Amino acid sequence: MLDVIQKLLVLQDRDRRIQQLEAELATVGPQRQSLVSATAAARSKAEGARQHVLHLEADRKKLELEVTAKQELIEKYSLQQYQTKKNEEYKALTHEIEMCREAIRKLEDQQLDLMEQSEKAHQIAAEVAREVELSEREFHAQIAALDEREANLRRHHADLTGNREDLAAAVEPGVLPKYERLRRTKGGSVVVGIDHGACGGCHVKLPAQVTIACRAAQEIVNCPNCGRILYYTSDMDMVPAE
Length: 242
Description:
Elements: H1 3-83, H2 87-162, H3 164-169, H4 176-186, E1 191-195, E2 198-199, H5 208-216, E3 221-222, E4 229-231
Parallel strand pairs: 1-4
Antiparallel strand pairs: 1-2, 3-4
Helix pairs in contact: 1-2
């Protein structure tokens, strides 16, 4: 194997590991945002449950005020009955009093219904609040673990990229630009071996003269189909696959 091929393989391995780390780092932000969104949704649910309880309490107090107002009207009409001497006015006030009492009965029925709703709403709100509390603890633990993972990935990335330039500089100047150009289009698979007489990158069968040139290891050989840099080792199977 040519010395330059060995250097390229070392550089390629480093680039693949860097690329993998960068791919992992790219997932950290979305994972963090997903956790934040899930926690925000839980908080919103808890706030909605709390607001529902407050709304029911406000409605119940409103009904209490309406009952009080009707009771005050009954007292007013009763006093007017005591003061009037006209039979028709007395009957009219009696009718108004009965109407107020009927309204109070309906309001009290609504109060009972609201009390039942309020009790259920309180239970739901308490349950959701407990869920949020557990979710918050889990959120902070997961964020801490994610932050630690990100820090480790960045440290590892810095270690790998730290001497990447030295590895690249060791490659012959005339070869390195070709490698970099291929890496931009082929990703992490630039320098590939021969697999059953085919290119290890595009898997197209290689002409005999190409495989012979690779085995001779006298010059850099490119795949005539995809342009990748080819290499050969004695353990590679040169027999074309059936």
